[in-house]
């Protein structure tokens, strides 16, 4: 069950696509959106800003003042983005669940310092996390998605740059016989139930793809009320990391579900590189679970 969705806010232009993706996920599930902004003290921001360590004398004070102004600006922008988004989409702001209200709701939380640890804790307490691809406006680490994927134990949805229209059309599941793919599929089941079309895609990596496992998987999904189609592709068409986005485009998929695994740092990945490729690039939302 997915009822609480964590939406980290940066206060930058990437908020638009992340917010829209989170809402597209939340609508069919009538879920609660927890918008979450992390602020940085001057010391924390200075540690994460390379040029500050070379400042001397009055330049230090000037650099710290600039960092404080930047943090204030991002915080104000993030709160404004939240309020504008909720107003435009008629999303009520609530801090506690209400038995009388069955639609999407939202709340706002802002905290300061220890950003990596704080974000990991609240991610573990949520049912799903929606994140944008790496950028430096909020001083968060560039490997934030990998860290959450490996450490929070919750599924992630990586937002594309262009806001999605919805999640109730076609959902594509990139399947491989590994535990990570199984966990991702199970976690995405609430969304699959609301999809108009579900397609299980298997790409042969060595030799011919075996039909029997996917036939069995499709039968199992039918017990959940999910009628899943099956699509096989051969390795001769290219590596899975390249094929999966192409197939998703052909199917006009609204969401791609994959399992991701690896070590720290995340380099050994499912489908021989597809996890890392989808973290770095993608034109549609990607649902991923380690």
Notable characteristics:
290 residues, alpha/beta, Rossmann fold, 2 domains, ten-stranded mixed β-sheet, globular
The biggest sheet amounts to: 10 strands, mixed
Q: At CATH's second level, what is the architecture of the largest domain?
A: 3-Layer(aba) Sandwich
Q: Helical proportion?
A: 25-40%
User: What's the average pLDDT?
Assistant: 82
By CATH, the topology of the largest domain is Rossmann fold
Could you tell me the number of beta strands? 10
In DSSP terms, counting alpha (H) and pi (I) runs of 4 or more, how many helices?
Answer: 9
Taken as a percent bin, the fraction of beta residues is 15-25%
SSE string, helices as H and strands as E: EHEHHEHEHEEHEHEHEHE
CATH superfamily of the largest domain: HUPs
Brief summary of the model shown:
The protein has 2 domains: 4-158, HUPs (Rossmann fold, 3-Layer(aba) Sandwich); 170-289, HUPs (Rossmann fold, 3-Layer(aba) Sandwich), CATH 3.40.50. With 290 residues, it is an alpha/beta fold.
Question: Could you explain how this protein is built, in words?
Answer:
- The chain is α/β, with parallel strands linked by helices and 290 residues long.
- The protein has 9 helices and 10 strands.
- The chain has a 10-stranded mixed beta sheet, sandwiched between helices.
- Helix 8 packs across helix 9 (274-280).
- It is globular, with a radius of gyration of 20 Å.
- Mean pLDDT is 82; it is low at 54-58 and 263-272.
């Amino acid at each position: 069950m997915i009822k609480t969705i964590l939406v980290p806010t940066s206060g930058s232009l990437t908020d638009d696509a992340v917010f829209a993706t989170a809402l597209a996920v939340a609508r069919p599930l009538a879920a609660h959106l927890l918008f979450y902004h992390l602020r940085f003290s001057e010391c924390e921001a200075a540690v994460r800003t390379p040029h500050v360590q070379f400042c001397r004398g009055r330049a230090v004070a000037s650099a710290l003042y600039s960092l404080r102004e930047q943090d204030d600006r991002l915080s104000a922008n993030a709160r404004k983005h939240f309020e504008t988004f909720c107003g435009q989409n008629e999303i009520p702001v609530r801090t506690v669940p209400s038995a009388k209200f069955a639609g999407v709701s939202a709340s706002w939380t802002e905290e300061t310092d220890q950003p990596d640890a704080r974000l990991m804790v609240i991610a573990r307490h949520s049912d799903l996390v929606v994140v944008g691809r790496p950028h430096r406006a909020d001083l968060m680490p560039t490997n934030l998605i990998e860290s959450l994927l490996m450490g929070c134990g919750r599924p992630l949805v990586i937002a594309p740059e262009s806001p999605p229209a919805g999640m109730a059309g076609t959902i594509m599941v990139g399947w491989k016989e590994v535990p990570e793919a199984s966990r991702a599929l199970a976690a995405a089941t609430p969304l699959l139930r609301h999809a108009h079309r579900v397609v299980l895609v298997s790409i042969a990596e060595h030799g011919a793809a075996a039909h029997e496992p996917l036939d069995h998987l499709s039968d199992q999904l039918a017990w959940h009320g999910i009628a899943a189609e099956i699509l096989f592709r051969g390795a001769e068409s290219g590596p899975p990391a390249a094929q999966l986005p192409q197939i998703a485009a052909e199917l006009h998929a609204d969401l791609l579900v994959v399992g991701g695994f690896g070590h720290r740092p995340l380099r050994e990945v499912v489908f021989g590189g597809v996890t890392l490729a989808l973290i770095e690039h993608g034109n549609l939302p990607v649902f991923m679970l380690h």
